[in-house]
Write a structure and sequence with these properties.
There is one protein chain. The protein is mainly alpha-helical. It has a single domain, classed as MFS general substrate transporter like domains (Growth Hormone, Chain: A). It has 17 helices and 2 strands. The chain has a two-stranded antiparallel sheet with strand order 1-2. Helix 1 packs across helix 10. The two termini are about 35 Å apart.
Length: about 425
């Protein structure tokens, strides 16, 4: 049980980090009213998190491998808390953006830290399962950022809600310092060079120079670009096109996260049991691409139960992304687990950072001038154009599947790999 405690505390901070990825979609209309914001500005604000996340992802992995999860993740949580409260008290866009950037900077180390703990405290054969469980914790964070956040905002306003989140983050950071240890007592230490900043930096160049690192990097780039934009714009879409309240829209939009809660750990577990990564990725990404196309073609014409069902299905097939992390780890040297996962993870957040503002600009370009409750309301054709870009990204993720290396759920750095039986 002790290993679950060491994993669970940083996983709690990762839940908070994931919460922040989805939160702007729920409070988008509140932000539009408070700061007279356009869709482009909301996209830029949301992407500030991902720019910080992407920019500090590799340095975060280097710091974790060099100085340990306990200190680095706890410090990251403190930075997240500072950024959250900065956003809560912002009276202009500059401190709002600065706070969002700080949140992303602190969040950077949480995911890699949790997976580093998983790689040290759990058997190697369970890494795919632990990766998926970690993703599931994050998905739970995105669920907290839908209907529960909408309810809290309704009761207290978005500013007070963010103050509450900041305090919770500080408590979790303190627990990380108090309870978490970087490795089991008596565990064999990592190679001496691997534990130094210089050695890890050399290892980073080794990971970047490995051609097998880049297919999972690009696959996650495409998959998370699409998912991140869906999480950002699904609530505004349901409000604008179906006339729902924020609370109701958040409830329907939670379908993606609800599905991922079960699909992500199941995907990781089955991949470990089958000792196969590439085939399940291909099957899932195929289904996801089809559902994205269906969403674009039927946008605005489905009844609400049909929208919920379609989003739920996208959540099930969207679990393909959890396989990119174990593939990235298993095609690189074992002692570079933190850096390897960080590099692959960078792909997804770089994708979200680069695409959210342009999709906001697509919405603005097709805005008809409608204002509802002090915020812009976009027509269905605007959302169709934006979501068509996401559908293209999902198709690109599928097209990358032949380039992924089959590791058979073992470290394949020095082996040729082989197809699944």
């Amino acid at each position: 049980m002790i290993r679950w405690l060491h994993w669970g505390v940083p996983a709690g901070l990762f839940l908070i980090a994931f919460f922040h990825r989805t939160a702007p979609g729920v409070i988008a209309k509140d932000l539009m009213r408070a700061f007279d914001a356009t869709g482009t500005l909301i996209g830029l604000l949301s992407s500030a998190y991902f720019y910080a996340y992407a920019g500090f992802m590799i340095p975060g992995g280097v710091l974790i491998d060099a100085y340990g999860v306990r200190r680095v993740v706890a410090a990251g949580g403190a930075v997240m808390a500072l950024g959250t409260v900065t956003m809560a008290v912002a009276t202009s866009t500059w401190p709002l953006f600065a706070g969002r950037f700080l949140v992303g900077m602190g969040a950077t180390v949480t995911f890699v830290g949790v997976l580093k703990i998983a790689s040290v405290w759990f058997p190697p054969r369970q890494f795919g399962t632990m990766s998926a469980l970690t993703a599931t914790v994050g998905i739970a964070g995105s669920l907290v950022a839908t209907a529960p956040l909408a309810s809290l905002v309704t009761l207290t306003g978005w500013r007070r809600a963010f103050v509450v989140v900041s305090l919770v983050t500080l408590v979790a950071s303190a627990l990380c310092v108090w309870l978490v240890r970087d490795r089991p007592a008596g565990a064999a230490p990592e190679p001496a060079e691997a534990s130094t900043l210089r050695g890890i930096t050399r290892g980073l160049l080794q990971v970047l120079g490995n051609r097998h690192t880049w297919p999972p990097f690009l696959a996650f780039f495409c998959l998370y670009s699409a998912l991140g934009n869906l999480l950002l714009w699904s609530v505004p879409f349901l409000r604008d096109v179906y006339g729902l309240s924020t609370l109701s829209a958040a409830g329907y939009a939670s379908a993606v996260s609800l599905a991922l809660l079960g699909a992500a750990p199941t995907t990781g577990y089955l991949s470990d049991r089958m000792q196969c990564r590439k085939r399940p990725y291909t099957l899932l990404s195929s289904g996801l691409a089809v559902l994205w196309i269906v969403l674009v073609l039927t946008l605005g014409s489905l009844p609400l139960w049909g929208v919920f069902a379609l989003l739920f299905g996208m959540g099930i097939f969207g679990a393909a992304f959890v396989l990119t992390w174990p593939i990235g780890r298993e095609v690189n040297p074992p002692h570079l687990a933190g850096v390897a996962v960080a590099v692959v993870n960078l792909g997804g957040f770089l994708g979200a950072a680069l695409t959210q503002a342009p999709l906001g600009a697509i919405l603005d370009a097709r805005w008809s001038g409608a204002i509802v409750a002090g915020a812009r309301a976009y027509p269905v054709d605007a959302y169709r154009a934006a979501f068509a870009v996401c559908a293209g990204l999902a198709v690109a993720a599928l097209a990358l599947s032949p380039l992924l290396r089959e590791t058979r759920a073992t470290n394949a750095y020095r082996s040729g790999g082989s197809p699944c039986a």
